[in-house]
Amino acid sequence: MSTKTFQIVLKSTHKGQAEDFAYISEGKSLLIGRASQHSNVDFKLYNDFVSREHCRIHMKGGKLHIEDLGSKHGTAVNEMELVPNEPCYIEPGDKITLIHGLIELYICIDNEVTREFTSMNVAIPQNIAINDHLHNLIIG
């Protein structure tokens, strides 16, 4: 059974924020917010106007949804401001903007590059950590 994996691509006009990306698949969610020393977000943005927990993207039933979490400067999909705490359906090609267009996120399907990985079938040494959301390994 093939499952979709979506790539969330960040493009920012804000100095200091490099282009970045994360992956999301069925049953997962991606919490997007301001980077800080005690940040618990999955996708960190380096901008003081981004709320600590700005928005969440989640996938259920093969469909992506985004929800503004009551951010001070808002979230929009295709230039339509979201109502806080109300999920909005999104799909590849949609343009998501935070803080009135200063930060842009794009959605792409990325089944060719991403592969499902579960730690159940591999013994992982204690000095290696896996970040599910960013699909990267941290060694050391």
Notes on the structure:
By secondary structure, the protein is mainly beta. The protein has no helices and 13 strands. The strands form three sheets. It has a six-stranded antiparallel beta sheet, with no helix packed on it. A five-stranded mixed beta sheet has the order 4-3-5-6-9, with no helix packed on it. A two-stranded antiparallel sheet has the order 12-13. The mean pLDDT is 78.
- Which strand-content bin applies to the residues? 35-45%
Which geometry do the CA atoms define?
globular
How are strands sequenced across the largest beta sheet? 2-1-11-10-7-8
The Cα radius of gyration reads 15 Å
Major sheet summary line: 6 strands, antiparallel
Order of helices and strands: EEEEEEEEEEEEE
List the total number of helices. 0
Coarse structural class: mainly beta
| Terminus-to-terminus distance | 35 Å
Task: Briefly summarize what is shown.
This protein is mainly β. 0% of the residues lie in helices and 44% in strands. The chain is globular.
